[in-house]
Amino acid sequence: MKLLEISAVRKSYGAVTVLDGIDLEVPAGSRTAIVGPSGSGKTTLLRIIAGFEFPDSGTVTFGGQRLADGPDAVPAHKRGIGFVPQDGALFPHLNVADNVGFGLARNMPGRADRIAELMDMVSLDTAMLQRRPHELSGGQQQRVALARALAQRPRLMLLDEPFSALDTGLRAATRKAVAQLLTSAGITTILVTHDQSEALSFADQVAVMRAGQLVQVGTPMALYLRPRDPATAGFLGDTIVLPAQVGAGWADCALGRIAVNQADRSGAAQIMLRPEQLQLAEVPVESVDATACFGEVTDIDFGGPVCVVSVRLLGASSSTAPLQVRSPGIHVPPVGATVRVAVAGSAHVFDR
């Protein structure tokens, strides 16, 4: 069941088109991530859903209610949608209790209990209620902002890059905790981010934006393994893109003959592998033959558990860029080693 439906939404600022015909459905109870480079229009789309901006044309429907039909729109405060901005936007002159309870009437029965309940929901100690925002860590400030947004019991929560200012370890932990909280509360969520790994780990539906358009929508695994074009593939992670001749479920390319995921394709095509699909095994030089793919290690970017190994394929021209292969640090071959290159799984064939 869809909770939010966006249809043919367009938005321009003067001569600049920011959104160019956006269509998106968000199922109830789901977590959707809208991901794209800076300037792709993702924050504008989020603000239109929230009611801070109005579309030039197109419709936004929420729970069966038409929120926007072009510039004719329901104001933000009447939509019942929660919003957490990138910086949290806490009121510096108010303590945590007043920030969390900002949207609750002062004379509301049980107001203090509701504030304590919200603190518990976001895993914050009520001992913090008298602190000011500057006395909190970045992660704590984001949780307070989330608690404030939850106070109105919204059916839809909008998150505008809320984890971007956090340290890497805290960012991952906070993201996981927020995802679990919103899911357990049954709140549909839309996250806007430029971080592809964040989108893939947070959401069960990912929408990729580019130049004001949604270029592909699907599950994280589908988009990662079957992107529609090289640009989308590269945005979602590192890629190895090769020209190939495909047919009958196989591709002949620089890595030899490898399986592909589209048995009905034939002819010249571009295929994609993710770096983790390549497996390296160090071999003596004398074992090199024409029955397999071999290369020479030219560089290693040591990263501890996962290293990036540059491999020049034997027989390739000097102008051919080395392959970038991910290898476990404990098994990484040394620079200068001869390695056998094997492919795990199948390659993806891009659409024509």
Automatic annotation (TrEMBL):
Residues covered by the ABC transporter domain: 4-236
GO MF term set: ABC-type ferric iron transporter activity; ATP binding; ATP hydrolysis activity
Keyword presence, Isomerase: no
Record keywords, A-Z: ATP-binding, Cell membrane, Ion transport, Iron, Iron transport, Membrane, Nucleotide-binding, Transport
Cellular component terms (Gene Ontology): ATP-binding cassette (ABC) transporter complex
Superkingdom of this protein's organism: Bacteria
One of the GO biological process terms: quaternary ammonium group transport
Coiled-coil region(s): none
Protein name (database record): ABC transporter ATP-binding protein
